[in-house]
Amino acid sequence: MIRTAIIAFVAATLSPAAHAADFMAAKALCAEALAQKTGRTLDDANTRLVKARDGGVLKVTVSVKFEDGEKSFGECKVRRGEVLSVTPRARV
């Protein structure tokens, strides 16, 4: 009984950190894919996670501000460290 409670407590406390790491990794992958799709590089670019949803795949929306000041927005679907699709958006 106590063992089950301890396992449940540990799983509940570690789960948000695991999701945050997944979202940050997905953000980096999405930003790179968005930069490639727009023909740019991420050198000195700032990336920001705008939205993230978890399901069968991680669906993340990112904002990338390139060094010349231009911004790009895009939505990506990421599964197991691989970008399945990239959709550039005009605005979020």
Structural overview:
The protein is of the alpha+beta class. It is 39% helix and 36% strand.
Question: Low-confidence parts lasting 5 or more residues at pLDDT below 50?
Answer: 9-15
- Which strands sit side by side, in order, in the main sheet? 1-2-3-4
Percent of residues in beta strands? 35-45%
Give, in order, the helices and strands.
HEEEE
Helix and strand content put the structural class at alpha+beta
Shape: elongated
Query: How many domains comprise the coordinates?
Result: 1
Query: Could you tell me how far the N terminus lies from the C terminus, measured between alpha carbons in angstroms?
Result: 48 Å
Radius of gyration: 16 Å
Helix content: 25-40%
Total beta strand runs: 4
Number of helices: 1
Biggest beta sheet summary: 4 strands, antiparallel
Average pLDDT, all residues: 82
Q: Which short descriptors sum up this protein?
A:
single chain, alpha+beta, 92 residues, 4 strands, 4-stranded antiparallel beta sheet
Question: What's this model, at a glance?
Answer:
The chain has 92 residues and is of the alpha+beta class.
Outline the secondary-structure elements:
Layout: H1 2-37, E1 46-53, E2 58-65, E3 71-79, E4 82-89
Antiparallel strand pairs: 1-2, 2-3, 3-4
